[in-house]
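Sample intake sheet
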Amino acid sequence: MTEQTAVPETGVVEDKSDAAVVRDALGVGIAVGLSGFAFGVTSAGSGLTLMQTCALSLLVFTGASQFALVGALAAGGNPLTAAAGAFFLGVRNAFYGLRLSQLLALPRAVRPFAAQWVIDETTAVALAQPTRRAVRIGFTVTGLTLYVLWNLTTLLGALGAEAIGDTDAWGLDAAGPAVFLALLAPMLKATTERAVAALAVLLGLGLLPVLPAGVPVLVAALAAPAVLWARGRRGSGAVEDSTREGER
């Protein structure tokens, strides 16, 4: 029986050795995992205890949501609003899981544990692989490397926060968003995706001075349905115009 491809719709299966998959996965896991240090410093600087900071990385384990939470708290935001913003950022992982569940095809007993590693980086590495075996290797190596490093560097960052002093002076509070944007930018290939990103930035930055901390990111989430609605309106209008032209 031939191995099922990860991207059967293309009809092309590229040969890729296990070593090459592991190398790529380690590169992503190590590069992103080291940024956990910035989260540890930022979280401790926001007033969270060492245990709270480490618990966030161990249990939440999605960098963008973690940075959003501590950033909102540091800005004086309501804890419930901050948690809501972090939650909505983390919802994207559920959609990743829908696709990865098909590609990984893991046993039911393993799925709850694998779900903890469904994040931007593991999804990106897994989707880049040509076969199911490569998908599983890429997902596992990326997830394991990133989880271990992220939690270790979170601990080190939280412990070293007092020695570093003011995190704003070092600019470490911007490390998380910078990493997230670096991962997001290459994915914005279609016009619709770029429009959603641009509108979300405008909403988030424009409302930042007038709304409580943590609320602008919630409003920015409306960019996706707004752009899709506008696109649907344009599409239906074009269809109506072509229909009228045909009737003439």
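Comment: The first helix runs from residue 18 to 33. Confidence is low (pLDDT under 50) at residues 1-5, 8-12.
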